C-alpha cells in the first residue's frame, strides 16, 4: 500500500511535483488552503482526515508546518503516531528558519507571499478579508506592515506580475527572493522514511 499524505492545499501541487520527480508512491489528500484563515480548525481537520484514510495506507504523514495551530497539530500527530513537516509555517520550509528570522529581525512588518498566495491573493486575501467590497479596511489589516516579500518557488514573469498586483492592492512595496522549494523536498522524503 502507498503512503497517505494529508497536505496543506497550498503545498499539495509542490508535493505532487516532488513525488513525481522522485517516483514516490504516495497519495495526497489536500485540505483547503483557506484553512489558514482559520488556523484553529487545522488540527481537527487533519485529525478527521487521518482517521478517514489510515486504514487505506501502510503509513500516513502530514504535510503541514505548525501553521498557527500553536501546538494543536502536534497533539494530533502524536495521537496518530505520524510525522509532520518542520517549522512554524511554510515560509520556514521554503526560505529556511534562519532566513525568516533574519528578515523579521530587520523588519517585523514583513508580509510574506508564496507562489500559491501570489496566484490566489485576490481570493485568499482580498475577498476573504472583505477588501474587495470595503477597501477602506486596508489599514485595519495592513497598517503595521511595511513591505511584501514574495518567496518565489518558481519565478515566472506571470507570477512576478501577480505579485506586483498583490502588493499594490494592499499598498506595499514588493521584494522578491528566489528560494525555490527550499527544504520541502528533503522534508517530504524525511516524512516518508521510517
TrEMBL record:
InterPro entries the UniProt entry points to: DUF1638 (IPR012437)
Ranges for domain DUF1638: 31-186
Protein name: Unannotated protein
Organism name: freshwater metagenome
Amino acid at each position: 500500500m502507498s503512503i497517505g499524505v494529508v497536505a496543506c492545499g497550498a503545498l499539495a501541487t509542490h508535493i505532487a511535483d516532488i513525488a513525481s520527480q522522485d517516483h514516490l508512491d504516495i497519495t495526497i489528500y489536500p485540505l483547503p488552503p483557506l484553512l489558514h484563515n482559520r488556523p484553529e480548525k487545522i488540527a481537527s481537520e487533519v485529525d478527521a482526515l487521518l482517521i478517514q484514510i489510515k486504514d487505506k495506507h501502510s503509513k500516513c504523514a502530514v504535510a503541514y508546518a505548525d501553521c498557527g495551530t500553536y501546538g494543536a497539530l502536534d497533539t494530533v500527530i502524536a495521537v496518530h503516531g505520524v510525522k509532520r513537516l518542520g517549522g512554524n509555517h511554510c515560509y520556514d520550509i521554503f526560505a529556511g528558519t534562519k532566513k525568516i528570522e533574519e528578515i523579521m529581525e530587520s523588519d517585523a512588518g514583513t508580509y510574506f507571499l508564496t507562489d500559491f498566495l501570489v496566484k490566489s491573493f485576490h481570493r485568499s486575501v482580498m475577498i476573504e478579508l472583505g477588501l474587495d467590497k470595503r477597501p477602506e479596511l486596508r489599514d485595519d489589516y495592513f497598517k503595521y506592515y511595511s513591505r511584501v516579500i514574495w518567496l518565489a518557488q518558481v519565478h515566472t514573469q506571470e507570477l512576478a506580475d501577480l505579485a506586483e498586483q498583490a502588493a499594490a492592492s494592499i499598498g506595499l512595496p514588493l521584494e522578491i527572493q528566489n528560494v525555490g522549494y527550499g527544504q520541502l523536498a528533503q522534508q517530504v522524503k524525511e516524512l516518508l522514511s521510517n
